[in-house]
Amino acid sequence: MIIRAGYDIAFDSYQEVPMVVLLSVHPSRQQDLRSEHKIEVSPRVITRDGLDPFGNTWTRFVAPAGRIEIRNDFLIEDSGQPDESRPAAQQWDVNNLPDEVLPFLYGSRYCDTQRLTNLAWSLFGPIAGGWRRVQAICDYVHQRIQFGYHHARSDRTASEGHEERVGVCRDFAHLAVALCRCMNIPARYCTGYLGDIGVPKDPAPMDFSAWFEVFLDGQWFTFDARHNVPRIGRIVIARGRDAADVAISTQFGNAALARFDVVTEEVGAGGLSQAA
Domain limits at 168? Predict the structure, then answer.
Protein backbone atom coordinates (compact mmCIF):
# COMPACT_ATOMS: atom_id res chain seq x y z
CA MET A 1 0.00 0.00 0.00
CA ILE A 2 0.98 3.64 -0.42
CA ILE A 3 0.64 6.07 2.48
CA ARG A 4 0.67 9.83 2.24
CA ALA A 5 2.22 11.47 5.28
CA GLY A 6 3.50 14.87 6.29
CA TYR A 7 3.02 17.91 8.49
CA ASP A 8 2.61 21.68 8.56
CA ILE A 9 4.10 23.14 11.76
CA ALA A 10 4.80 26.76 12.71
CA PHE A 11 6.54 28.51 15.59
CA ASP A 12 6.59 32.17 16.65
CA SER A 13 9.60 33.74 18.35
CA TYR A 14 10.76 37.23 19.27
CA GLN A 15 14.43 36.56 18.60
CA GLU A 16 16.68 34.11 16.79
CA VAL A 17 16.31 30.63 18.26
CA PRO A 18 18.50 27.62 17.44
CA MET A 19 16.33 24.56 16.81
CA VAL A 20 16.76 20.83 16.33
CA VAL A 21 13.87 18.88 14.80
CA LEU A 22 13.34 15.15 14.40
CA LEU A 23 10.91 15.18 11.50
CA SER A 24 12.53 12.96 8.87
CA VAL A 25 11.47 9.39 8.25
CA HIS A 26 13.86 7.05 10.08
CA PRO A 27 16.80 5.86 7.93
CA SER A 28 15.47 2.29 8.13
CA ARG A 29 12.43 3.37 6.05
CA GLN A 30 14.22 5.57 3.51
CA GLN A 31 14.17 2.80 0.88
CA ASP A 32 10.35 2.75 1.06
CA LEU A 33 9.90 6.38 0.02
CA ARG A 34 8.04 6.80 -3.27
CA SER A 35 8.28 10.58 -3.61
CA GLU A 36 10.64 13.35 -2.62
CA HIS A 37 11.06 13.62 1.13
CA LYS A 38 12.30 17.10 1.91
CA ILE A 39 11.77 19.35 4.91
CA GLU A 40 10.71 22.78 3.65
CA VAL A 41 11.46 25.70 5.98
CA SER A 42 9.98 29.17 5.41
CA PRO A 43 11.49 31.70 5.49
CA ARG A 44 14.50 29.95 4.02
CA VAL A 45 17.30 29.31 6.46
CA ILE A 46 20.45 27.23 6.32
CA THR A 47 19.63 23.70 7.50
CA ARG A 48 21.89 20.71 8.01
CA ASP A 49 21.01 17.08 8.60
CA GLY A 50 22.87 14.51 10.62
CA LEU A 51 22.42 11.43 12.76
CA ASP A 52 21.80 11.74 16.47
CA PRO A 53 23.37 9.28 18.97
CA PHE A 54 20.48 6.83 18.42
CA GLY A 55 20.72 6.77 14.62
CA ASN A 56 17.78 9.09 13.97
CA THR A 57 17.97 11.88 11.39
CA TRP A 58 17.92 15.33 12.91
CA THR A 59 17.77 18.70 11.18
CA ARG A 60 19.43 21.77 12.70
CA PHE A 61 18.85 25.45 11.92
CA VAL A 62 18.47 28.87 13.50
CA ALA A 63 14.92 30.20 13.37
CA PRO A 64 14.76 33.96 12.76
CA ALA A 65 12.58 36.28 14.80
CA GLY A 66 8.93 36.06 13.77
CA ARG A 67 7.15 33.02 12.37
CA ILE A 68 8.94 30.00 10.94
CA GLU A 69 7.01 27.31 9.07
CA ILE A 70 8.17 23.70 8.65
CA ARG A 71 6.47 21.44 6.10
CA ASN A 72 6.77 18.08 4.41
CA ASP A 73 4.43 15.99 2.27
CA PHE A 74 5.52 12.63 0.88
CA LEU A 75 4.47 9.16 -0.23
CA ILE A 76 5.85 5.98 1.30
CA GLU A 77 5.22 2.33 0.53
CA ASP A 78 4.16 -0.01 3.32
CA SER A 79 3.63 -3.76 3.43
CA GLY A 80 0.03 -3.33 4.56
CA GLN A 81 0.64 -6.05 7.15
CA PRO A 82 -0.15 -5.55 10.86
CA ASP A 83 2.58 -5.47 13.49
CA GLU A 84 4.36 -8.82 13.69
CA SER A 85 3.16 -11.20 16.39
CA ARG A 86 5.42 -13.99 17.66
CA PRO A 87 4.04 -15.42 20.91
CA ALA A 88 6.89 -17.94 21.19
CA ALA A 89 9.58 -15.22 21.32
CA GLN A 90 11.68 -15.53 24.47
CA GLN A 91 13.43 -13.11 26.78
CA TRP A 92 17.24 -13.41 26.81
CA ASP A 93 19.34 -13.42 29.96
CA VAL A 94 21.01 -10.05 30.55
CA ASN A 95 24.48 -11.60 30.13
CA ASN A 96 23.56 -12.70 26.61
CA LEU A 97 22.28 -9.33 25.40
CA PRO A 98 24.32 -7.44 22.77
CA ASP A 99 26.19 -4.41 24.07
CA GLU A 100 24.15 -1.98 21.96
CA VAL A 101 20.94 -3.18 23.61
CA LEU A 102 22.01 -2.58 27.22
CA PRO A 103 21.16 1.18 27.31
CA PHE A 104 17.52 0.20 26.82
CA LEU A 105 17.55 -1.66 30.14
CA TYR A 106 18.49 1.39 32.20
CA GLY A 107 16.15 3.88 33.78
CA SER A 108 15.85 7.19 31.94
CA ARG A 109 14.37 10.65 32.37
CA TYR A 110 10.71 9.63 31.95
CA CYS A 111 11.06 5.90 32.59
CA ASP A 112 11.86 5.96 36.31
CA THR A 113 12.32 2.23 36.82
CA GLN A 114 13.51 2.58 40.42
CA ARG A 115 9.97 3.58 41.45
CA LEU A 116 8.31 0.69 39.64
CA THR A 117 10.57 -2.34 40.14
CA ASN A 118 8.76 -3.87 43.12
CA LEU A 119 5.39 -3.38 41.44
CA ALA A 120 6.64 -4.93 38.18
CA TRP A 121 8.01 -8.06 39.82
CA SER A 122 4.89 -8.54 41.92
CA LEU A 123 2.65 -8.34 38.85
CA PHE A 124 4.72 -9.93 36.09
CA GLY A 125 7.35 -12.03 37.84
CA PRO A 126 5.23 -15.21 37.79
CA ILE A 127 4.59 -14.92 34.02
CA ALA A 128 6.90 -17.14 31.97
CA GLY A 129 7.98 -16.38 28.42
CA GLY A 130 9.15 -13.06 27.03
CA TRP A 131 6.25 -12.34 24.68
CA ARG A 132 3.61 -13.37 27.22
CA ARG A 133 5.22 -11.12 29.82
CA VAL A 134 5.34 -8.09 27.49
CA GLN A 135 1.74 -8.67 26.43
CA ALA A 136 0.69 -8.84 30.07
CA ILE A 137 2.43 -5.50 30.62
CA CYS A 138 0.58 -4.01 27.63
CA ASP A 139 -2.73 -5.31 28.93
CA TYR A 140 -2.06 -3.81 32.35
CA VAL A 141 -1.02 -0.39 31.02
CA HIS A 142 -3.90 -0.32 28.54
CA GLN A 143 -6.36 -0.86 31.38
CA ARG A 144 -4.55 1.33 33.91
CA ILE A 145 -4.36 4.60 31.95
CA GLN A 146 -7.31 6.54 30.57
CA PHE A 147 -6.48 8.22 27.25
CA GLY A 148 -7.39 11.85 26.61
CA TYR A 149 -5.64 14.73 24.83
CA HIS A 150 -6.69 17.04 27.65
CA HIS A 151 -4.59 14.85 29.98
CA ALA A 152 -1.34 15.71 28.13
CA ARG A 153 1.54 16.85 30.33
CA SER A 154 5.07 17.16 29.02
CA ASP A 155 6.86 16.30 32.27
CA ARG A 156 4.88 13.26 33.45
CA THR A 157 7.07 10.25 34.32
CA ALA A 158 6.09 6.60 34.04
CA SER A 159 5.48 6.26 37.77
CA GLU A 160 3.39 9.44 37.80
CA GLY A 161 1.34 8.14 34.88
CA HIS A 162 0.78 4.95 36.84
CA GLU A 163 -0.47 6.89 39.86
CA GLU A 164 -2.50 9.53 37.97
CA ARG A 165 -4.02 6.90 35.64
CA VAL A 166 -4.48 9.38 32.78
CA GLY A 167 -2.36 10.38 29.80
CA VAL A 168 -1.72 10.36 26.08
CA CYS A 169 0.14 7.85 23.90
CA ARG A 170 3.56 8.86 25.26
CA ASP A 171 2.40 8.05 28.80
CA PHE A 172 1.22 4.59 27.76
CA ALA A 173 4.59 3.99 26.09
CA HIS A 174 6.64 5.34 29.01
CA LEU A 175 4.90 3.15 31.57
CA ALA A 176 5.14 0.03 29.40
CA VAL A 177 8.82 0.68 28.62
CA ALA A 178 9.64 1.21 32.30
CA LEU A 179 7.83 -1.96 33.39
CA CYS A 180 9.60 -4.00 30.68
CA ARG A 181 12.98 -2.68 31.80
CA CYS A 182 12.14 -3.54 35.41
CA MET A 183 11.70 -7.12 34.19
CA ASN A 184 15.10 -7.05 32.40
CA ILE A 185 13.49 -6.82 28.95
CA PRO A 186 15.19 -4.15 26.77
CA ALA A 187 12.60 -1.64 25.58
CA ARG A 188 12.87 1.52 23.50
CA TYR A 189 10.47 4.39 22.88
CA CYS A 190 9.34 5.12 19.30
CA THR A 191 7.62 8.06 17.68
CA GLY A 192 6.21 8.35 14.19
CA TYR A 193 3.10 8.29 12.01
CA LEU A 194 0.15 5.97 12.64
CA GLY A 195 -2.93 6.62 10.54
CA ASP A 196 -6.44 5.20 10.90
CA ILE A 197 -5.76 2.36 8.46
CA GLY A 198 -7.82 -0.79 8.96
CA VAL A 199 -9.59 0.73 11.98
CA PRO A 200 -12.53 3.14 12.45
CA LYS A 201 -11.52 6.73 11.78
CA ASP A 202 -10.68 8.71 14.91
CA PRO A 203 -12.56 12.04 14.86
CA ALA A 204 -9.75 13.77 16.77
CA PRO A 205 -7.16 15.75 14.73
CA MET A 206 -4.26 13.64 13.44
CA ASP A 207 -1.09 13.72 15.53
CA PHE A 208 2.22 11.92 15.69
CA SER A 209 2.01 8.71 17.69
CA ALA A 210 4.16 6.94 20.29
CA TRP A 211 4.65 3.21 20.75
CA PHE A 212 7.53 0.99 21.89
CA GLU A 213 9.73 -1.91 20.84
CA VAL A 214 11.15 -4.77 22.89
CA PHE A 215 14.16 -6.99 22.27
CA LEU A 216 13.20 -10.68 22.29
CA ASP A 217 14.92 -13.66 20.64
CA GLY A 218 17.59 -11.40 19.17
CA GLN A 219 15.36 -8.87 17.41
CA TRP A 220 13.08 -5.91 18.07
CA PHE A 221 9.30 -6.28 18.07
CA THR A 222 6.63 -3.56 18.06
CA PHE A 223 4.08 -3.20 20.87
CA ASP A 224 1.50 -0.49 21.49
CA ALA A 225 0.02 -0.22 24.98
CA ARG A 226 -2.44 2.50 24.01
CA HIS A 227 -4.22 0.62 21.22
CA ASN A 228 -3.15 -2.87 22.39
CA VAL A 229 -3.87 -4.47 19.01
CA PRO A 230 -1.57 -4.95 15.97
CA ARG A 231 -1.88 -1.95 13.67
CA ILE A 232 -1.17 -1.33 9.99
CA GLY A 233 0.99 1.41 8.51
CA ARG A 234 3.39 2.54 11.22
CA ILE A 235 6.08 4.88 9.88
CA VAL A 236 8.83 5.34 12.44
CA ILE A 237 10.56 8.70 12.72
CA ALA A 238 12.80 8.17 15.73
CA ARG A 239 13.73 5.72 18.50
CA GLY A 240 15.31 6.44 21.87
CA ARG A 241 15.23 5.72 25.58
CA ASP A 242 12.14 7.87 26.08
CA ALA A 243 10.44 11.01 24.75
CA ALA A 244 13.35 13.21 25.82
CA ASP A 245 15.54 11.53 23.18
CA VAL A 246 13.06 11.83 20.32
CA ALA A 247 11.34 15.20 20.77
CA ILE A 248 9.86 16.36 17.45
CA SER A 249 11.36 19.80 18.12
CA THR A 250 13.84 21.20 20.63
CA GLN A 251 14.18 24.97 20.90
CA PHE A 252 17.15 26.62 22.59
CA GLY A 253 15.19 29.75 23.39
CA ASN A 254 11.59 30.93 23.45
CA ALA A 255 9.58 29.72 20.44
CA ALA A 256 5.83 29.21 20.81
CA LEU A 257 3.96 26.60 18.78
CA ALA A 258 1.58 28.44 16.43
CA ARG A 259 0.32 25.65 14.16
CA PHE A 260 0.48 21.86 14.21
CA ASP A 261 -1.12 19.78 11.46
CA VAL A 262 -0.22 16.16 10.68
CA VAL A 263 -1.52 13.94 7.87
CA THR A 264 -1.27 10.13 7.58
CA GLU A 265 -3.60 8.33 5.19
CA GLU A 266 -3.68 5.49 2.69
CA VAL A 267 -3.86 6.59 -0.93
CA GLY A 268 -4.97 4.72 -4.04
CA ALA A 269 -2.74 3.70 -6.93
CA GLY A 270 -3.55 6.96 -8.69
CA GLY A 271 -2.54 9.04 -5.70
CA LEU A 272 -6.11 9.89 -4.61
CA SER A 273 -6.85 9.58 -0.93
CA GLN A 274 -8.98 6.66 0.21
CA ALA A 275 -9.53 8.26 3.60
CA ALA A 276 -13.03 9.48 4.44
Answer: 94-245
